[in-house]
Design a protein that fits this description.
Elements: E1 11-14, H1 30-35, H2 37-43, E2 47-50, E3 54-55, E4 67-71, H3 78-90, E5 94-99, H4 109-115, H5 119-122, E6 127-128, E7 143-145, E8 152-154, H6 169-184, E9 189-192, H7 222-239, E10 242-246, H8 252-259, E11 268-270, E12 279-280, E13 282-286, H9 291-304, E14 309-310, H10 320-324, H11 331-344, E15 348-352, H12 373-384, H13 389-399, H14 402-405, H15 436-441, H16 446-458, H17 461-465, E16 467-470, E17 477-483, E18 488-494, E19 500-501, E20 509-512, E21 525-526, E22 531-534
Parallel strand pairs: 1-2, 1-15, 2-5, 5-9, 9-10, 10-11, 14-15
Antiparallel strand pairs: 3-4, 6-8, 7-8, 12-13, 16-17, 17-18, 18-22, 19-21, 20-22
Bound molecules: 6-O-alpha-D-glucopyranosyl-D-fructose.
6-O-alpha-D-glucopyranosyl-D-fructose is lined by residues 60, 63, 100, 137, 157, 193-194, 246, 248, 283, 315-316, 401.
Length: 535
């Protein structure tokens, strides 16, 4: 295995809309990110993944791009972006950008021309007279009628996000050009949005499924593999650029085909199986979270893949403390435990903004406070099926992507140090006691723990590159060994919300979320959400 920079990098995801607002419009911006670069550097971060900052009508908060080479005025200017890259570089922080190329916005020039009847641009998308039966990722159908014509266009996501036709060589060339544009500006690579669905084999009807009928016609197709290889050869390799793919519905075998070292497609992928451990079929139908199921999914990927992209949060997922810990009574302990989990597994760790202070799910009271297009679509569909209002609200509140998108909590002031204006999304009331300023002052704070854990990882060959093997332990206790040539570490995590017998293990404590000095004081028991690393 080569030791490329991205293997031992700590990657921090920024959702720019919610990070830091400097002009009082209630929306985070690029100057805000620049202001916080020292904070980010202080954590020990090596690379920032920037969620979309491109021009967009924002129906899906930037995942609907109307101009790939322009910065959305909400976020600032191209000069601001260039400054961000150079200021980050001055601190030895790399930047990767979101590459959203399955679809554009329906307000992109290409689509507007297509709608106006321009033949060249019609072929950039999928326009058909007959619809198929495919289901959308955001619920409902995937074909939208073209006004004034007996014609429909394909959209796997919202109707504001028409799918690009990757069989068209012009589309390929346009995207190569866009990628070069940003790489020339000095970015280090891309996080590739839903990259394994871009190439549709056919538009035949799909086998009926509860969710995502049609999947078999576009999931990880040979055409997709082919495109990824070509992008690697024609563009990415020329810049030595890094890519992490967001790949839906893949297991380790499918993931390996997208990222194997010999495959020359992507460097790593985000899998979803561990994020699906608390759901039945679809994420809206939650089942009781069980640590064993989460551990089983993580272990499956650790053993099934040579390398993984590790994450417990992102802008699409509820907050991990609320989901896998106890946000009420043991918030800090849970946040630190999840930090150990995320950073001790083999692979590259991704930290989502706010995770480092243990931010919790949003405290939404009313459906009208929800902004996310997916949640709104799903609520509409549930209403159509006569699901009672109360039940809809409960489902949305638990699972909405807005849980992760509430503004970053910098301090306890009214605007949470995020904005002086009206925030675009409700600020969580708990910013009064969960915020960067207060947490940083506390030597037992979550941030301090993150810094320690990152520092430990950086000086440990075993944590950065070592092999992984799981140890036998009680239910809900995740015990594993990370072994490098000259170093062997044992990671012990009680993911249960109750005390549990610890496995028989000896060693010196390197890090502990309960401030353990040694193992003897534990008397064979691990406290709820207790995590340690032993040498
Ligand atoms: O959020 C999800 C879980 O239900 C996914 O279905 C999600 O939509 C999927 O992972 C794709 O996500 C990515 O592409 C979407 C965008 O809305 C998400 O924010 C992005 O991460 C469409 O571009």
């Amino acid at each position: 295995m080569n030791k490329e920079w991205w293997r031992n990098a700590i990657i921090y995801q920024i959702y720019p809309r919610s990070y830091k607002d400097t002009d009082g419009d209630g929306i985070g911006d690029i100057p805000g990110i620049i202001e916080k670069l020292d904070y980010i550097k202080g954590l020990g971060v090596d690379c920032i993944w920037l969620s979309p900052v491109y021009a967009s009508p924002n129906f899906d908060n930037g995942y609907d791009i109307s101009d790939y080479k322009a910065i959305h005025p909400d976020f600032g200017t191209m000069e601001d972006f260039d400054r961000l890259v150079s200021e980050a570089k001055a601190r030895d922080i790399k930047i990767i950008m979101d590459l959203v190329i399955n679809h554009t916005s329906d307000e992109h020039e290409w689509f507007k021309k297509a709608l106006a009847g321009d033949k060249k641009y019609r072929d950039y998308y999928y326009f058909r007279e007959k619809r198929n039966n495919w289901g959308s990722f955001f619920g409902g159908r995937t074909w939208e009628k073209v006004p004034g014509e007996d014609m429909y266009y394909l959209h796997l996501f919202s109707k504001k996000q028409p799918d690009l036709n990757w069989k068209n060589p012009d589309v390929y060339n346009e995207i190569c050009d866009i990628m070069r544009f940003w790489l020339d500006k000095g970015i280090a690579g891309f996080r590739c949005d839903v990259i394994n669905v871009i190439y549709k084999n056919s538009l035949e009807n799909g086998k009926r499924r509860l969710v995502l009928t049609g999947l078999e016609h576009y999931l990880s197709t040979d055409g997709c593999h082919e495109i990824l290889k070509r992008l690697q050869k024609d563009v990415l390799s020329k810049y030595d650029a890094f890519t992490v793919g967001e790949t839906v519905m893949v297991d380790p075998d499918a993931a390996n085909l997208l990222m194997g070292e010999d495959r020359k497609e992507l460097n790593m992928v985000f899998g979803f199986e561990h994020m699906e451990c608390d759901q039945r079929g679809v994420k809206w139908f939650k089942r009781r979270y069980s640590p064993e199921r989460l551990i089983a999914a993580l272990d499956k990927w650790q053993t099934g893949c040579e390398w993984t992209a590790n994450y417990l949060e992102n802008h699409d997922q509820p907050r991990s403390v609320s989901r896998f810990g106890d946000a009420e009574n043991l918030r800090k302990e849970s946040a630190k435990m999840l930090c150990v989990l995320n950073l001790a597994l083999r692979g590259t760790p991704y930290i989502y903004q706010g995770e480092e202070i243990g931010m919790t799910n949003g405290d939404f009271d009313r459906m009208s406070e929800i902004e996310d297009i997916e949640s709104k679509n799903v609520a509409k569909i549930l209403k159509k099926f006569l699901v009672p209002r109360g039940a809809i609200k409960k489902m949305i509140k638990k699972t909405t992507r807005d849980n992760a998108r509430t503004p970053m909590q910098w301090d306890h002031s009214a605007g949470a140090g995020f904005t002086d204006g009206m925030p675009w999304l409700k600020i969580n009331g708990n910013h009064e006691w969960i915020n960067v300023e207060d947490d940083e002052k506390n030597e037992n704070g979550v941030i301090a723990f993150y810094k320690d854990m990152i520092a430990l990882r950086k000086q440990s060959d075993a944590l950065q590159f070592g092999d992984y093997s799981r140890l036998e332990a009680k239910k809900g206790i995740y015990a594993f060994v990370r072994k490098a040539e000259k170093e062997t570490l044992t990671v012990l995590i009680n993911m249960n919300g109750y005390s549990e017998k610890m496995p028989e293990i000896t060693g010196r404590v390197l890090i502990s979320n309960y401030d353990r000095e040694n193992l003897e004081e534990m008397k064979g028991l691990m406290k709820p959400y207790e995590a340690l690393i032993l040498k």
